[in-house]
User: Fold these one by one.
Assistant:
Number 1:
Amino acid sequence: MNNNDSLVNQKRRAILGGTAAAITGLAIAPGVFLTETAQARPLDEAVSSKQRWGLLINTNNCNDCNDCVTACQDENGWGSGSTDEQKSREDQKAQWIRTVKVTDNQTGYAKTLPMMCQHCENPPCVDVCPTGASFKRVDGIVLVDKHICIGCRYCMMACPYKARSFVHEKLTDQRSYAPRGMGTVESCTLCVHRVDNGEDPACVEACSSSMIFGDLNDPDSEISQELNRHGGTQIRADLRLNPGVRYQGLNF
Amino acid sequence: MHAMHLLKTISMVVLLLTAMGVNAGVPIPKPIHGEGQCVEPEDIMKRNHMEFILHQRDETMQEGIRTSKHSLKQCISCHAVKDDDGEYVHVDDSRHFCVTCHEYAAVSIDCFQCHADTPRSTDKHELRVNE
């Protein structure tokens, strides 16, 4: 496919979809995007609590394809996106996002959903961290500051979503924007390096049919509008963590 | 008189040997310069680069400020050294920009346990240069 073709297709997609997300792909020159500069916060400006980033996942459209997982691996350099972690057992290796199949035992009705850090408003991993390495950015993204993580793994035990992993061996194959290293805990960063550049996380880019990324604080954002119209489920809402990741179609 | 002369000769020889010893020791490192002007004057960079990187580290981590000035990624990007085969050298190689001085000063670097020590052409998100 040449450049003209893809441009036409992208325009067509933008018109058909009529969504801001689709227009993001409209390139005016290689690497220069029309809406990116408009959405992106200036590089030297700190993030603010005006935003709260969130994800909405429609499990009705999820078709067990695993694209979100491979996109994350490729983007952040873990699993199949890396040649490291050869000595670790399967259950020891990094797992930032995984697919989970939930089945209703009575009816046999089953759903597959991607599970990752839920970017809670009240994150238990932050509560228990003895050094302050596990923290929540003011815009709601929960991260590990690996500079001060001592690898105690208390956060891994505290997380009800089993979203974090520990790096057991020396790594050499890191991405420059996603540093990871032995002796530290890691998890989904909501692709913070992309979000800071006004882009969507890699998983959302790979699966725009069932994932929406956006600002939960902005009532006009696509994600807020969709939640307002059709609602969404918090996983383990009983824990009152108010996760930033919401699901649709989990009606068992 | 004779003893005095001998002492003089010995001290001269010792002096000479000491001078030769310095010359024959570990050579002063000559790290490669990046293209164009560095973000700070060279003498300030030599003494304070760790402070700049540390400050930028916390701003990027906590506040999402991703300017290229004082970012480790930008250091690596400008000062990357290639070997004879045209491949970027890693920190296990004495020719790596950071290693040239750190090896001389016997100061270990922890940065590259997590951070990439070479620029990667496969990185999909190159650092955006601040206009």
Note: The radius of gyration of chain B is 22 Å.
Number 2:
Amino acid sequence: MPVWLLMPSLAFVAAFFVAPVAALLLGAFRLDGVWGFGHFSAFFAEPLNREVYWRTVRLAGLATLAAACIGYPAALAIVRLPARWRGLVTALVILPLMVSPIARTYAWIVLLGRNGLVNSLLVSSGSVQEPVPLLYTEAAVWLGLLQLMLPLMLVSLVSALENLPADVEHAARSLGATPLQAFFKVTLPLTQEGLVLGGTLVFTGCVTAYITPALLGGAKVLMLETLLYQKVNSGGDLPAASVIAVLLLLTTVAVNQLLRRASAARRTRLAPSGAVPKAAT
Amino acid sequence: MTGGSRPGWFCAAALALALIFLVGPFFVVFIAGFSGEETLVFPPRSLSWRWMAHIFTVESFAASLRTSLVVAVVSTVAALLLGVPAAYVLVRRNFAGKELVRTLLTLPIIVPGIIVGLALLNYMVLVYDMPVTASLLVGHTAMLLPYTVRVVSGSLNNLRLDIEDAAVTLGATRLRAFWLVVVPNIRGGLISAAVLAFITSFNQVPVSLFLTGPGISTLPIEMLAYMETNYDPSIAALSTLMVLFTIIVVAGMERFFGFTRHV
């Protein structure tokens, strides 16, 4: 099996992926034939662009936080389920990942729209006279992102909890730890990598989401990808689009590194304290 | 376990919330898809098949569905043809730069699709006059390649080397040994990779955004366009069919090939 079998795939990726993407990204650093950050300062000089950037990071962060808070206890419940139920629940978690994001996001339009469930409940209960705008708000986009990305957090956490030695929590309890102590000193640190992986996947997925902000945020609640689309399609502002492309990529790579670092630092700090399986058993 | 009931209840409640969050939206879309109303009202006051029937009369849906199917099939086949040999070499051989190669082949999964679409539009379609259809196929193939490489690598990792060597020792050529020994043994992985790639391409939006237009469009892009000008339950009806189709495919795959083990 000669190594040249790699050539077709490498040539394909180089020609149709690396080259055009690199050209687009490099374009963000070139203004009037000179290398520099001119396009970036122009981009961040506009208040709207700054607002969209921070909104993207904020919504992605809040969705990641919420996914971790719901996902961790839910994943604990999943690994404790009897085998019969566990298969079904796992299927219900994985299946949404295969379904078109449009179909998954559309439910929020149905629920939050002018004549949607929430508004009809509000109006019929007399809390409001007129339907209130719920769609095209940050809250709607946040809900949509959380729903879309939650399976990724669950899958990462379930596999981390599966790899956790079964008796460490028990050992901590028998040595006198309260259930909460056992959780925060043993279970959580030992499954941190799953949490970091899930967090990275969710955050990155949120930052680079297009369908959710397009459907639930519209032109009112722009995020980086919808802003990029708008820049190209109404005005053909390619420099701004390449700046957004660089920001999308930098943000995702930076978060990746940051979370990885944080998790490594914590691990070395914890190791001598004895909260590792070898010392606990 | 003493005192275990309180955290137990808390976790069960979180799981219930998560499941409602994951599965609930599908029921909402199903009910809305069978609405008898003129516009999107939820809950609908009457149920009917009218929007299910209506989506089959929308010309742009039919045309874009055909495009979506062709793009998904062609890019899946291309991603397998490129990815299977690559996975094979990556699993079986050690060579300088192996990690670099692996990184390069998985790069398309890290780069947001919208960037790939825009890059192909600007530096292939506009600069080198690449046809838009070709760029759409190329963009989809690039995005699928990491999936086929990963899934097929996983299957190859589980396959014992010596059965292939035995075939070669007994006189088979390497290629013949691959077809007669390796392929049947990684069949589940190959089929899972193909289905995963097909679904990923069919649902793909960001890559297609800039590579579609009035002449050529995929179904998800057409759905987004339809939603901008129409406020009727058609999209709910169409989404219902897509969800049911996905459930049937994934459940069937799981039953016969252990889909979730591979992907």
Note: The first helix of chain A runs from residue 7 to 27.
